[in-house]
Structure formats: structure tokens, C-alpha cells
From TrEMBL:
GO terms under biological process: protoporphyrinogen IX biosynthetic process
Metabolic or biological pathway, per its Swiss-Prot or TrEMBL entry: Porphyrin-containing compound metabolism; protoporphyrin-IX biosynthesis; protoporphyrinogen-IX from coproporphyrinogen-III (O2 route): step 1/1
GO MF annotation list: coproporphyrinogen oxidase activity
Keywords associated with the record: Heme biosynthesis, Oxidoreductase, Porphyrin biosynthesis
UniProt-recorded name of the protein: coproporphyrinogen oxidase
Transmembrane regions: none
Organism of origin: Pedobacter rhizosphaerae
Oligomer and partners: Homodimer.
Length: 304
């Protein structure tokens, strides 16, 4: 790819990601019915910046972030070592979303789509969507995975199975021996050599994943928002949120990359819920909905 063409490609990726951010924010405001996103434009010392959009205290969304960034500059030594590269100048752009609902029967959802490059030989797309229900409803889980499989099958019959297994492995809390939720799809370092797709087709796949987010989550909100819930279910929600916090602070590669590249701390940690509880030695009784949910927090469940 020629230098001018490469620059145009980077600009196209960033522009289309911004459009995804705009569409999702509009759709979530409609779905919530009350909350509005507040936008903060920020610049990164060293190069680039982004648009952080946060909704707080909505009708359903207690705290949600839909962030866009496009940053560039010198890659820190620790990241160069992790990537096993010698080049300094990097470019990274993406959209990152985490939604924490106030209703314990509406799930937490996360999406990330991103593009990273150092040079012609070191560049790739990554991302995915995963769902973290406080209570696992099997019909909702099947719907969620079916929609992700459709998004993958539009580009490759192999993508869903491969990326679903990757999500199971990635969103795993090793010290708890449980998955963060019911998984989804997760992919990294996609390029023509390992996908049989062109760079433009991989970008189209990334956008397709982004466009899948809104219809999935608005459906899950509508299915559950009017259900009554108890104080016990609310307490369980806070308990499950604590697992989300543990994963993001201990294992999440996006959090680590943001911190190591001097990213904006408020944007990086917007993924954390407004409240989470760490009860001591919590073990739900067999037969309860809470105990049933724990049985689904394992790898390898076939939801489709």
C-alpha cells in the first residue's frame, strides 16, 4: 500500500468509527428515553485525541460510555517489547463501549472495535462484543450469540466459531475460575494474511460488528426493562459488577495499553461501574437464580 493510500485508509477508518459512535449514541438515547450523553473533547499529549461520551443516571443506563479515539506518537518501550517491535511511531483508532444498567435483569455490555499500525507489516484490526448478564437468561444468550454469528458469517464461515472460542478464553477471570459473562466474539491482529480478506473488507467487517451493537442491546433492554426486581437481585447485581471490575483492572489488555501509552485516565476507566460490592465468601444456595447463573459462567457453552 502506497504512503498516500495508507494515510487515506487511516483517515477512512477513523471517520467510519466516528460515525459508529454517533449512531450508537443517538440510538442509546432513544432506547433509554431519559439520559443524554455528555461529550468531552480531549487531546493526548504526544499526538491525537478523542471524544469521550458518558451517560449517567438515565432511565435504564446508570453509567455508560461510548468513546472514540485516534491517537499517534511514540510507542513506549514496554509496549514495543510486548509487541516485539523496534519502530517508534504508532497510530491507533477505535470505539470502546461499556454500558452498566441500573436494572439487575438488563445485562452489562461491552464492545470494542479498533485499528492499530506501526508500519506496512505491523498493522491489524481487533475488537469484539461480549455480554455480562447479572442473571443469565438462556433465550437472551441465544439471541445475542445468534446475532454475532450472523455478523461473522457475512464475511467468513470460520469467524464465529474461532472468535467465540477466543472470547471464552480472553474474558476469563483466572483467579475466580469463571468467565466474566457469557462471552461473545473477540478477535485480534486481523490482516489479509490470516483472514483471506482485503484491508477494506476487514474494515467492513469491523464496521459490521459495530453496527450489530445497537439492535442487540436495544432488544435486550426492551425484553427486560419492565420486569420487577427485588432487593436481593439488586445486591446480586452489585456483586456481579465486582467481577467485572476485577477483570478490567487485572487482565484487560485495552486498559493496560491505555495506561502504558499515557492515555486519558477518565476515558480508560470509564468501563468501571458506579458501584460494586465485594461481599465475603458469597455462595448462593442451589436452586436459586443466582446459583443457576454461576453454572453458565464457563467456557465452551454452545449458544447457537
Amino acid at each position: 500500500m502506497e504512503i498516500e493510500e495508507k494515510i487515506m485508509f487511516k483517515e477512512e477508518v477513523a471517520q467510519r468509527y466516528q460515525q459508529i459512535q454517533d449512531e450508537i449514541c443517538r440510538g442509546l438515547e432513544i432506547a433509554d428515553g431519559k439520559g443524554k450523553f455528555e461529550e468531552e473533547i480531549w487531546n493526548r499529549e504526544g499526538g491525537g485525541g478523542g471524544r469521550t461520551r458518558i451517560m449517567q443516571n438515565g432511565a435504564i443506563i446508570e453509567k455508560g460510555g461510548v468513546n472514540f479515539s485516534a491517537v499517534h506518537g511514540k510507542l513506549p518501550e514496554a509496549v514495543k517489547k510486548a509487541f516485539n517491535v523496534t519502530e517508534d511511531d504508532f497510530f491507533a483508532t477505535g470505539v470502546s463501549i461499556v454500558i452498566h444498567p441500573n436494572h439487575p435483569l438488563v445485562p452489562i455490555i461491552h464492545m470494542n472495535i479498533r485499528y492499530f499500525e506501526l508500519n506496512e507489516n505491523t498493522r491489524w484490526f481487533g475488537g469484539g462484543i461480549d455480554l455480562t448478564p447479572h442473571y443469565v437468561f438462556e433465550n437472551d444468550a441465544r439471541f445475542f450469540h445468534h446475532k454475532l454469528k450472523q455478523a461473522c458469517d457475512d464475511f467468513s464461515a470460520e469467524f464465529y466459531t474461532k472468535f467465540k472460542a477466543h472470547a471464552d478464553d480472553y474474558f476469563y477471570i483466572k483467579h475466580r475460575e469463571e468467565t466474566r459473562g457469557i462471552g461473545g466474539i473477540f478477535y485480534d491482529r486481523l490482516k489479509p494474511e490470516n483472514t483471506n480478506l482485503s484491508w477494506t473488507e476487514i474494515l467492513d467487517f469491523s464496521i459490521n460488528v459495530g453496527e450489530t451493537f445497537l439492535p442487540i442491546y436495544t432488544e435486550l433492554i426492551d425484553r427486560n426493562r419492565d420486569k420487577e426486581f427485588s432487593a436481593l437481585q439488586k445486591e446480586w447485581q452489585y456483586q456481579r459488577r465486582s467481577r467485572y471490575v476485577e477483570f478490567n483492572l487485572v487482565y484487560d489488555s485495552g486498559t493496560k495499553f491505555g495506561l502504558e501509552t499515557n492515555g486519558r485516565i477518565e476515558s480508560i476507566l470509564m468501563s468501571l461501574p458506579p458501584q460494586a460490592n465485594w461481599g465475603y465468601n458469597i455462595h448462593p444456595e442451589e436452586g436459586t437464580d443466582e446459583h443457576k447463573t454461576l453454572q453458565f459462567l464457563k467456557k465452551g457453552i454452545n449458544w447457537v
